[in-house]
Design goal:
Elements (H helix, E strand, L loop, with lengths): L5 H25 L4 H23 L3 H25 L5 H11 L8 H8 L2 H27 L5 H9 L3 H13 L6 H6 L3 H17 L9 H27 L6 H12 L5 H9 L3 H29 L4
Length: about 300
């Protein structure tokens, strides 16, 4: 594969940052409360977005193995970080750090970038990677976040109420039974991916519009940045090199895995923190820092990691 020209990514990256700015203006000038939007994203827009993507993607055992691998990797990273963070941070901050460590902005931020960099087959592979990360967010990750404030029973009860897992199972059932979704239904659901990206990025700005500098926690932000831009690129490179050692790895799959490793912190850190009431202001500031760095770091990291993986 050829070297990635940073200019090809500037358009989508700055557009996403503009959505953050719109969210900030909405909170500051219109006094919009982001909490109902967070609930809407968790309980309606995200499940329908990923139900549609999974049905259109045509899940196969190989694709689902990719989803399972990303789910397990995200969960393992989060559990390790939780064990380390609870010794150094308060319960809410350690729970939020653990949640954020297992995920990245693979959906709202990474998907538009994937559409620029990858062919259709590569985008499908990337979507099944994203699905694994998203399943982590709304199962293991949500549980770890909830435990920062709620009991084990209360945390499990909150997970049972989350519809994304049921949307995932419904899509697998429909695919397994060979059911064809009505064209009108799929066309109507086509609005959800763009809505998912727009509101997901705007909610960062909305939260920041209600934040004061007193919420600035350099130690927490530093830990988030180190995990997202230090640990995850290394994990992505290790995954590509490990797979290459056993069989020829399609370049589009390798690039999809590397992209998962270099996106900024997940906007869902803010969404989940707001839904559960666990330090959303600190989460929003950390997400903003990594998102502002993304236009410079993503092209740099991708070119560097592709060179190290022998992809050009």
């Amino acid at each position: 594969m050829t070297m990635i020209d940073p200019s090809t990514l500037m358009g989508p990256l700055w557009t996403l940052l503009a959505f953050v700015g719109l969210g900030w203006l909405a909170a500051r000038r219109l006094a919009i409360d982001p909490r109902p939007i967070a609930t809407l994203l968790v309980y309606l827009i995200a499940p329908l977005t990923f139900f549609r993507a999974l049905v259109l993607g045509g899940p196969t055992p190989a694709y689902l193995l990719l989803t399972a691998a990303l789910f397990l990797l995200s969960s393992l990273v989060a559990l390790i970080v939780q064990c380390l963070a609870r010794r150094r941070f308060a319960s809410e901050e350690s729970a939020l750090l653990a949640f954020s460590s297992g995920t990245g902005n693979t959906g709202y931020f990474g998907l538009p970038v994937a559409l620029v960099l990858l062919p259709p087959q590569g985008v499908t592979l990337y979507l099944f990677c994203v699905l694994g990360v998203t399943l982590y967010e709304f199962t293991v990750g949500f549980y770890l976040s909830a435990r920062g404030r709620f009991s084990v029973a209360q945390s499990l009860a909150k997970i049972v109420r989350l519809p994304l897992v049921y949307a995932f199972l419904a899509a697998l059932l429909a695919s397994g039974l060979g059911l064809d979704m009505p064209d009108a239904m799929m066309e109507g659901m086509a609005v959800f991916p763009a809505t998912y990206t727009l509101l997901g990025m705007m909610i960062i700005g909305m939260t920041l519009g209600r934040v004061s500098l007193r919420a600035l926690d350099l130690r927490f932000i530093g830990a988030c940045v180190a995990i997202r831009y230090g640990l995850w690129p290394l994990l992505a490179l290790a995954a590509v090199l490990g797979l290459q050692a056993f069989f020829p790895l399609p370049p589009e799959l390798a690039l999809a895995l590397l992209l998962v490793g270099v996106v900024p912190m997940a906007a869902n850190v803010v969404v989940v923190a707001m839904e559960l009431g666990i330090a959303p202001a600190k989460g929003a500031l950390a997400v903003l820092v990594t998102t502002l760095a993304a236009p410079l770091l993503i092209p740099f990291y991708l070119n560097l990691l592709m060179a190290l993986a022998g992809m050009r």
